[in-house]
Amino acid sequence: MPKGVYKRTNTSNYKKYNSKTYVESIKKLRPELIVLEDYVNMLTKIKHRCTYCDSIWITQPRQALNGKQCRLCYKKEKQSTEALFVKKMKKMNPHLELIDSYSGSGSPVAIKHTCGYIFKTTPDRLVRHNVICRECTPVTRGVRAKKTTTILGTFDSSFEAKCAEIIFNKFKNVKFSKPYPKHNKKICDFYIPDFDLWIEVSTYNKEWYLKRILTKRQLVINFFFAQTIEQLENYINHLPTN
Asked: Does the CA dihedral 134-139-144-148 come out positive or negative?
């Protein structure tokens, strides 16, 4: 029988077990386990050896028969599963970080976005449905994201507010929400007149949104799109201060 897949034992037959029959059942149902102590009853813990990890494990006979793993094997499997989830999450959205202990695909965990926003969801839902940061998403299921107000103004997200602070610390002359030339319906987040520089900032990475950014890029000569604070800082630090 494959590792981790076991048939649940009928508890009504527990009375028939003794040391001999218990060892025989373990060999049949859990061949990776070796019984090291005499059987007393189903609730009295005894020592077993796990041949997968060569560790000695103390557990109730009923738990061993019902497929419970030894702690070391469970920990290794859990770490492997967590690593696989993080790999899938990073591939789907590199701006997300797991900051909670992983205890299964159906158990909620805390996820931190690069904008600093922390939210909870299940690993299964995040991977299957591409759960995104509500703080940074321009539109989520028809509902506009929460606004962030600072001394500089009101912004669509806290990420955009942080970007505004960085840009205003670097440049004196900055314009908000300036329409693109020859296309008044498309609005740019930040415009730096001294460099004729158009800057868009967002952590949203849906395909349709990235296509919209590409269309905006083709409207002007000097254009920059930042999806992280680090990208924005690295770019504007190479520009002279006006």
From this structure: positive
Q: How many residues does this entry show for the chain?
A: 242
pTM for this structure? 0.43
197, part of any domain: yes
Whether residues 108 and 153 fall in one domain: no
Contact (CB, 8 A) for 157 and 169: no
Half-sphere exposure of 33 (CA within 13 A, CB side): 33
Domain count, the chain: 3
Characterize the bridge pairing of strands 148-150 and 153-155: antiparallel
Helix 158-170 vs helix 229-236: angle between axes, to the nearest 10 degrees? 10
Residue whose tokens read 């449905």: 129
DSSP state of 206: -
41: Cβ contacts below 8 Å, ≥ 6 apart: 14, 61
Q: Indicate the helix (H) or strand (E) that contains 71.
A: helix 71-92
Q: In the numeric block, which tokens belong to residue 40? A: 């007393």
Domain with 213, as residue range(s), is 147-236
Residues 63 and 108 occupy one common structural domain: no
pLDDT in tens, 39-69: 999 999 999 998 888 889 899 999 888 888 8
Do 177 and 220 fall into the same domain? yes
**Last residue in a domain, options 34, 50, 69:** 69
